[in-house]
């Protein structure tokens, strides 16, 4: 529509402009062109110019430039860097020892089965997602013998990745959590955390996002006392975002005994656990072990949310496969929650995409494919463990100042190296090794070919830059 050419940054200017022309638009067209309301050569802009009107600036003229998302910018910078020694330790995705993305063999196999299955079509999925995906996904988080599953008091919503599951969960809580005034409910995220947690909860409308102690930089480990104290001091019914396993970015999880203490305070203070499970299988290589915390909380009788991502453990990053699990006190509550979830999903993405969910559902519902997937996950986890051991032994052999045991103590995809922002800058600018300013590295960026180079570069950074 050529009329859109006239949209101006300020409404008053739009009105003035329209008033200076002939209104309504249809009459204006007829008057100006004498030719009815059909397509006009040159459009309204040409006409405005002919009438001596100054063309307005863009309606987007006042839009400020936003900062790029750091981790994506880092990868873009890495791609542009022509240096052959370059290493990307920033990206949050698995890489093989050849520095390549990995399509899991079980995923390839299932994709082919799906492609050959002529009974599958492209009809819309239900609003809450593919039923067999939702039930199987929930089952691997909660376990086959989960009391909540047996008592029929769980439900779930297919999300666009873990992010979508978190966002839908946050949106629901802001609308409906524990009565009214939900936007003012404090939401606690760990310090540090995956940077998107803050953004997701504030985009959902929460106005009081706080951080709880998590990382003790001096001992390079969990600050359990700080965390428990923050929970003691939090207003009752506050929402706590907990990383189910393989904490991003620190690679440091509470032990089962520590989780028990956390659960006990949370129960006494009526705090709501919102688990983020983006790395099941990556922490230990064992899906059940990595789900220990979530299962413990469910067994302890908590009502909770758990946002699952299948981006990492299925390597389905761009298929956007996630699941939001709702565990309630009884089935009736859960049904009402899901009815409201439908309302939310309907106005956000209406209904989710099918392909990734089909791959996950098919894999999880066949014992053979499931066991193949477990092996694939273990392959990834084992490579990470190997890289941890190799990096630590190289740094220790070089006599790099400091202790490096945290590299092997930490788990999951990431390691929080303890490198300072200046040392990181040195590594990027002088060594073409890309990592986040926090010192977080993705262990999968390491390979048997670049380990020596990365270790000697870290050694140089630590010894040269204080
Ligand atoms: C802790 C954490 N939560 C959620 C996500 C989101 O995953 P997805 O890519 O499935 O949205 C990530 C991804 O990096 C993550 O690290």
TrEMBL record:
<keyword id="KW-0032">Aminotransferase</keyword>
<feature type="domain" description="Aminotransferase class I/classII large">
    <location>
        <begin position="85"/>
        <end position="458"/>
    </location>
</feature>
<dbReference type="GO" id="GO:0006107">
    <property type="term" value="P:oxaloacetate metabolic process"/>
</dbReference>
<dbReference type="GO" id="GO:0007219">
    <property type="term" value="P:Notch signaling pathway"/>
</dbReference>
<dbReference type="GO" id="GO:0055089">
    <property type="term" value="P:fatty acid homeostasis"/>
</dbReference>
<keyword id="KW-0963">Cytoplasm</keyword>
<keyword id="KW-0028">Amino-acid biosynthesis</keyword>
<comment type="similarity">
    <text>Belongs to the class-I pyridoxal-phosphate-dependent aminotransferase family.</text>
</comment>
<dbReference type="InterPro" id="IPR004838">
    <property type="entry name" value="NHTrfase_class1_PyrdxlP-BS"/>
</dbReference>
<dbReference type="GO" id="GO:0006114">
    <property type="term" value="P:glycerol biosynthetic process"/>
</dbReference>
<dbReference type="InterPro" id="IPR000796">
    <property type="entry name" value="Asp_trans"/>
</dbReference>
<dbReference type="GO" id="GO:0047801">
    <property type="term" value="F:L-cysteine transaminase activity"/>
</dbReference>
<dbReference type="GO" id="GO:0019550">
    <property type="term" value="P:L-glutamate catabolic process to aspartate"/>
</dbReference>
<keyword id="KW-0808">Transferase</keyword>
<dbReference type="GO" id="GO:0006094">
    <property type="term" value="P:gluconeogenesis"/>
</dbReference>
<comment type="subunit">
    <text>Homodimer.</text>
</comment>
<dbReference type="InterPro" id="IPR015422">
    <property type="entry name" value="PyrdxlP-dep_Trfase_small"/>
</dbReference>
<protein>
    <recommendedName>
        <fullName>Aspartate aminotransferase</fullName>
        <ecNumber>2.6.1.1</ecNumber>
    </recommendedName>
</protein>
<dbReference type="InterPro" id="IPR004839">
    <property type="entry name" value="Aminotransferase_I/II_large"/>
</dbReference>
<dbReference type="GO" id="GO:0006533">
    <property type="term" value="P:L-aspartate catabolic process"/>
</dbReference>
<dbReference type="GO" id="GO:0030170">
    <property type="term" value="F:pyridoxal phosphate binding"/>
</dbReference>
<dbReference type="GO" id="GO:0051384">
    <property type="term" value="P:response to glucocorticoid"/>
</dbReference>
<dbReference type="GO" id="GO:0005829">
    <property type="term" value="C:cytosol"/>
</dbReference>
<dbReference type="GO" id="GO:0004069">
    <property type="term" value="F:L-aspartate:2-oxoglutarate aminotransferase activity"/>
</dbReference>
<dbReference type="GO" id="GO:0006532">
    <property type="term" value="P:aspartate biosynthetic process"/>
</dbReference>
<dbReference type="GO" id="GO:0043490">
    <property type="term" value="P:malate-aspartate shuttle"/>
</dbReference>
<dbReference type="InterPro" id="IPR015421">
    <property type="entry name" value="PyrdxlP-dep_Trfase_major"/>
</dbReference>
<dbReference type="GO" id="GO:0004609">
    <property type="term" value="F:phosphatidylserine decarboxylase activity"/>
</dbReference>
<dbReference type="GO" id="GO:0120554">
    <property type="term" value="F:2-aminobutanoate transaminase activity"/>
</dbReference>
<keyword id="KW-0663">Pyridoxal phosphate</keyword>
<dbReference type="Pfam" id="PF00155">
    <property type="entry name" value="Aminotran_1_2"/>
</dbReference>
<dbReference type="GO" id="GO:0032869">
    <property type="term" value="P:cellular response to insulin stimulus"/>
</dbReference>
<dbReference type="InterPro" id="IPR015424">
    <property type="entry name" value="PyrdxlP-dep_Trfase"/>
</dbReference>
């Amino acid at each position: 529509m050529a009329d859109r050419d006239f949209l101006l940054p300020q409404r008053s200017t739009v009105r003035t402009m329209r008033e200076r022309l002939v209104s309504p638009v249809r009459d204006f067209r007829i008057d100006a062109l004498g030719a009815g309301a059909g397509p006009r050569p040159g459009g309204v802009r040409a006409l405005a110019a002919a009438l001596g009107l100054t063309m307005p600036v863009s309606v987007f003229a006042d839009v400020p430039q936003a900062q790029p998302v750091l981790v994506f910018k880092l990868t873009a910078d890495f791609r542009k860097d022509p240096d052959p020694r370059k290493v990307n330790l920033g990206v949050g995705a698995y890489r093989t020892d050849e520095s390549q993305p990995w399509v899991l063999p079980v995923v390839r196999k299932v994709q082919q089965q799906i492609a050959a299955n002529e009974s599958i079509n492209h009809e819309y999925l239900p609003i809450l997602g593919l039923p067999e995906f939702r039930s199987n996904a929930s089952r691997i988080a909660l376990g086959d013998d989960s009391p909540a599953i047996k008592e029929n008091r769980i439900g779930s919503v297919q999300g666009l990745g873990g992010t979508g599951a978190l966002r839908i969960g946050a949106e629901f809580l802001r609308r409906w959590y524990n009565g009214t005034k939900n936007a003012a409910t404090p939401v606690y995220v760990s310090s540090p955390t995956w940077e998107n947690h803050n953004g997701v909860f504030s985009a959902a409308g929460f106005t009081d996002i706080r951080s709880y102690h998590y990382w003790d930089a001096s001992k390079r480990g969990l600050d359990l006392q700080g965390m428990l104290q923050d929970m003691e001091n939090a207003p009752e019914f506050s929402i706590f975002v907990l990383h189910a396993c393989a904490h991003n970015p620190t690679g440091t999880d509470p032990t089962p005994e520590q989780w028990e203490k956390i659960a006990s305070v949370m129960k006494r203070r009526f705090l709501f656990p919102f688990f983020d499970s983006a790395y099941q299988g990556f922490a230990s290589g064992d899906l059940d072990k990595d789900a220990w915390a979530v299962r413990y909380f469910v067994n302890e009788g908590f009502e909770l949310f758990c946002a699952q991502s299948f981006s990492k453990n299925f390597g389905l990053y761009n298929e956007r496969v996630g699941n939001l699990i709702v565990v309630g006190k009884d089935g009736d509550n859960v049904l009402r929650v899901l009815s409201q979830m439908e309302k939310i999903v309907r106005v956000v993405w209406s209904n989710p995409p099918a392909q990734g969910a089909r791959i996950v559902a098919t894999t999880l519902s066949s014992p053979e494919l499931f066991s193949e997937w477990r092996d694939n996950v273990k392959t990834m986890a084992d490579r990470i463990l190997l890289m941890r051991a190799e990096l630590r032994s190289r740094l220790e052999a070089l006599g790099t100042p400091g202790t490096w045991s945290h590299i092997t103590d930490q788990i999951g995809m990431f390691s929080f190296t303890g490198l300072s922002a200046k040392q990181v800058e040195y590594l990027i600018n002088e060594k073409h090794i890309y990592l986040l300013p926090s010192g977080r590295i993705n262990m999968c960026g390491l390979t048997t070919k670049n380990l020596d180079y990365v270790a000697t570069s870290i050694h140089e950074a630590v010894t040269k830059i204080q």
